[in-house]
Design goal:
The protein has about 220 residues and is α/β, with parallel strands linked by helices. The chain has one domain: Alkaline Phosphatase, subunit A, CATH 3.40.720. The protein contains 5 helices and 5 strands, in the order βααβαβαββα.
């Protein structure tokens, strides 16, 4: 794992600190941030915080303090050039472009803002940024997923989702037609830091390296 290899990493979440504070309210008191769609509320989504449900990252543990951080910490670390080697970021709920409680314009503007700060970061020259989503965002896709031998398990790789790579090492004007799935991001990290391969990932899916030219 990253921790075993002493590779720095963090999960930054928009609204994390607000959500933690909101969670301390008495059970009979209405939440003001968590799952709240009131005007101006950031709509913090607890189930979007995967590490929050693991005992290793329980409240009061050293790993929680070291690795689970707020979105404001992300912006500060970008500007200071102190991002860890592996950085995950989940925007606060009202900026995720999810149907019913947000909109595309706000989400796109936020992505543009964060990418702009990353490009101005002292760490930019060695950076790889992967922007992706957890679902396809629609009811239909005119391109069916690959089928047959080599396509994965009985369900196949699923619907396509948008993914954009922004990096000094990204191939310019390049549309990558390699078959990937969401674990391809983890496979890329695994290869970059020579980690032990994760169990359960589809070997047929690429590790994103086709999208890069690391000689440039």
């Amino acid at each position: 794992t990253l921790s075993a290899k002493e590779v720095g990493w963090a999960w930054y979440s928009g609204g994390w600190s607000l959500g933690l504070a909101d969670g301390t309210r008495p059970p009979d008191e209405k939440r003001k941030v968590i799952y709240t769609r009131a005007d101006g509320a950031p709509y913090f989504v607890p189930h979007h915080q995967p590490f929050n449900y693991q005992a290793r990252f329980a409240p009061g543990t050293p790993d929680r303090a070291a690795h689970l951080k707020d979105g404001e910490d992300l912006l500060r670390d970008i500007d200071q050039g102190s991002l860890p080697a592996v950085t995950f970021y989940k925007p606060v709920g009202h900026l995720t472009e999810h149907p019913s409680y947000t909109d595309l314009i706000s989400g796109d503007a936020h992505i543009d803002e964060v990418l702009g700060r990353l490009r101005r970061s002292p760490q930019w020259d060695g950076m790889v940024v992967i922007v992706t989503y957890d679902e396809n965002g629609g009811f239909w896709d005119h391109v069916p997923p690959p089928r047959g031998p080599g396509s994965g398990d009985r369900f196949g790789p699923g619907s396509r989702i948008a993914t954009v790579i922004v990096s000094p090492f990204a191939r310019q004007g390049f549309v990558d037609k390699t078959s990937y799935d969401t674990t391809s991001i983890l496979k890329f990290i695994t290869r970059r830091f020579a980690l032990e391969p994760l169990p359960g990932v589809r070997p047929q899916m690429g590790d994103l390296t086709s999208a890069f030219d690391f000689s440039q």
